[in-house]
Amino acid sequence: DAGITQSPRHKVTETGTPVTLRCHQTENHRYMYWYRQDPGHGLRLIHYSYGVKDTDKGEVSDGYSVSRSKTEDFLLTLESATSSQTSVYFCAISDGIGAGREQFFGPGTRLTVL
Amino acid sequence: GNSVTQMEGPVTLSEEAFLTINCTYTATGYPSLFWYVQYPGEGLQLLLKATKADDKGSNKGFEATYRKETTSFHLEKGSVQVSDSAVYFCALDYNAGNNRKLIWGLGTSLAVNP
């Protein structure tokens, strides 16, 4: 299994509080992704990183920011959490972007915003 | 634009039954096609893939053939087991600037009863 961990695995927070989710990899992969998974929407890309300090927006980036200060860590921050951000968040990594390249997923973080 | 449509679930089968989960796509260019599987409480993992027309991906008894003429990538298994109970996601990848992104179907839940 690819070495990807996410922390915390579960979190309950209140509306308006800041939240940071961490993704840590031991594979030295260049590309890292944050997705959210919601019933009826499948997986949607929030942000991704193509190198240290290199990040870009995905399709549902509003209300989220990311940072990547070293290869192994990719942080997702909800500056002021809202109930619509209640979801399961998955981190994924990839060692390249050629056609057919696999993404490896972490175990997920279940976030509940009350 | 690019999109993936897969059959809605849930699908409920008895053990040893034949499985088909339909997936069709629209895409510009030449995407690769994937099936990912998500077991309960886990992240997604690649089940199989195909990178060009007429390729067949196979793994763990599952198969799917990249059909350009029908823009389809249907997942099949001849004899399902209880351990195949999971959510199955069809996806395609496409070039997007400095990245290669995935477009996901909504997932199809499969329950296999003994």
Question: Would you summarize the structure shown here?
Answer:
The complex is a heterodimer of chains A (114) and B (114). With 114 residues, chain A is mainly beta. Helices cover 0% and strands 57% of the residues of chain A.
SSE arrangement:
The complex is a heterodimer of chains A (114) and B (114).
Chain A: E1 4-7, E2 10-13, E3 19-25, E4 31-38, E5 42-51, E6 54-57, E7 64-70, E8 73-78, E9 87-94, E10 104-105, E11 109-113
Parallel strand pairs in A: 2-11
Antiparallel strand pairs in A: 1-3, 3-8, 4-5, 4-9, 5-6, 7-8, 9-10, 9-11
Chain B: E1 3-6, E2 11-14, E3 19-21, E4 23-26, E5 33-38, E6 44-50, E7 56-59, E8 62-65, E9 75-77, E10 86-96, E11 99-104, E12 108-113
Parallel strand pairs in B: 2-12
Antiparallel strand pairs in B: 1-4, 3-9, 5-6, 5-10, 7-8, 8-9, 10-11, 10-12
Describe the structure.
The complex is a heterodimer of chains A (114) and B (114). Chain A is mostly beta strands. Chain A has strands at 4-7, 10-13, 19-25, 31-38, 42-51, 54-57, 64-70, 73-78, 87-94, 104-105, 109-113. In chain A, the strands form two sheets. In chain A, strands 2, 4, 5, 6, 9, 10 and 11 form a seven-stranded mixed sheet that branches. Chain B has strands spanning 3-6, 11-14, 19-21, 23-26, 33-38, 44-50, 56-59, 62-65, 75-77, 86-96, 99-104, 108-113. In chain B, the strands form three sheets. In chain B, strands 2, 5, 6, 10, 11 and 12 form a six-stranded mixed sheet that branches. Chain B has a four-stranded antiparallel sheet with strand order 3-9-8-7, with no helix packed on it. By secondary structure, chain B is an all-beta fold. Chain B contains no helices and twelve strands. Helices cover 0% and strands 54% of the residues of chain B. The chains are: A mainly beta (114), B mainly beta (114).
What descriptive keywords fit this protein?
heterodimer, A: 114 residues, mainly beta, seven-stranded mixed sheet, 57% strand, B: 114 residues, six-stranded mixed sheet, four-stranded antiparallel sheet, 12 strands, 0% helix
